Amino acid sequence: MQLVSHKNAIRTTVYSDRDGRYEFPNLEAGWYTLRVARPLEYKPYQREAVWIERAASLDEIVLERVTDSEFLPPTPEILAQLTDAEWLYNLPGTVQEKKIFSDTCGSGCHNYQQSLRDRFDEKGWSLMLDRMTLYGGRLVIEKNRPGPDGKIPMGFGLTEENRDILLKFLARVRGPQSEFAPMKPFPRPRGAATRVIITEYELPRFDVRVHDVAGDADGDIWYTSNRSPIIGKLDPRTGIVKEYQVPVTPGKHTGQHWLAIAKDGKIVFTETWSNNLGVLDPATGQVTKWTGTGGNKGLAPDGFVWGTCDGRYLCKFDPKVSAEPIQKIPLKKSQNTYGNDVSEDGNFFVGGTPWQANFDGIVWADLRTGEIWEVQTESGHADPSRGGVDPEGNGWNGGRGGRITEFERKTHRVREWESPTPFVTFYEAKPDKNGEIWAGAQRGGRIVRFNPKTDRWIEYLFPEPLSLDWRTWIDNSTNPVTAWYGDHNGYIVRIQPLE
Amino acid sequence: MQNARILTMILLLGFGAADTTLLFSVQKSGERGTPDPPKGNLQRSAEILYFKRFAESGSERGKEIYFYKCWVCHNDYTRAAGTTAPTLRDLYKRPRLISGQPVNDQTVAAKIKTGGSNMPGYQYTLTEQDLADLVSFLREGKCCWEDFEEKEPPRNPRYKAK
Known about the structure:
A: 8-stranded antiparallel beta sheet, 5-stranded antiparallel beta sheet, 6 helices, B: mainly alpha, Cytochrome Bc1 Complex, Chain D, domain 2, 30% helix, elongated
């Protein structure tokens, strides 16, 4: 059930237990819209205006089913409520075809529905595949550089054989005459997965494409916009957002990527498309940018920034001075990691290397000694990307191959866990203070909480079927911890587990 | 038809529920001001899937369709990097399409539907309404995203925190 504030549009969602009971947290007195988010097999329910003040109980709600069948008619309303993973699960085709689709089209920066709502003939799908795999980056602006054989390499580790399988799959299941069959949704949340409060905050603008979020000492949440020159600060108490302008680099698309908050309160960030390292002073709004390094980085408590550079080094940067590395540690196997994270104490580094043909692996480093481990994943198909370091120094990464990976500090082994929900992908993972791992299950409309000590997964389902989560930020000051992420589709989400 | 029954209860978490007076409030009191419910479809995913965040129809909706379906190949950045797709800026000010046909709603819609040697045909993907909205966006000269919206993204009317 969801309450949407008429005052500030903040949405608060809670989940009913097995008896249909639900409880909202203490909310500011005011008018709210009460609705069922994602009613799926039930007809929509919405009450436009409900006055909420202190503790109150509301009338019983009786929802009417859309159908007696367990398969839901693929109406526009129901299709829009299903997650990407549910779409893919319900399409005809082999698991191999769907996994190749997931590994390729779920590795990048759009949801599955953006592709699967379309219908093309084989020529049309072939052109789409060329555009999406032969051009680089999230904006697919520039063609990939030719390899030693003179051919343009395909992105996402796609092989010629798999491209052929993928093309035939798309042309068959989303060809000109294709129709959606009745759909079976995944199970609704049960047990611990219902004991959570999800809060969604509106942002002032559409299409800013939120990328990273991080909280500051005042409890505000900062975010980067991947497709616009705006860095924002959300006050979760009021929902008010303050925007900071980032100067535009002429000739380059605007937008940032990584963001972290330094001890002095300054915002350290990178710009994706103009390849800049930047610092924003919140007190003045002044932005300093250094050209030469972008993408993901890790901020150490001493203010230095770590990341890989030049194709074969782990590099240290001083964001106060320039984007030139001030220290370079050679790597043997990895040609740049995608994620670059530093432990809270500054002692350890971890990064993952997705799509590298000869090394699907983890780079872990002890930054005090310069000791480096580069270890292949078990499956070779994890595509580990962004992550973090747990309190024991183990490195964790989310894998675009639908797996979460761990580099175990004591044994130097890499282990991996596959998502319990099929066809989701992980772009990142973040350990909390208790050693539990949080990761946005992209294309699954959920965030997972994985306890490696018990192998227990809790999947918190969102009120929207969307979950393009590029960076989860954990607020370790609360008990239980609170997770935050900014959805690519333009809103910020807080996840408050009740246990 | 089986129906689902949901018992509703709103409680203060962390507050002694047994001591709490349960209130059911309705829209009567003048002190409460006027309800101002959020507009549009509150299932965001539906607005996104059907390109209805900016508008239900017309050139504003066409802008969203353009952004998702056309911008990737027709933007200035990728053309500067060598992509051959032409800009769609001021399309209706040109005398002819590359094909030699005159520029009007019918020929533009037909081109979108059938595609070309490097462009997929969208006749099975876009509905007639989608095409009409997209064409009106192009006709009204509001293209292209990088001229304005990239730097000043459209305002979200649902954002109302003050």
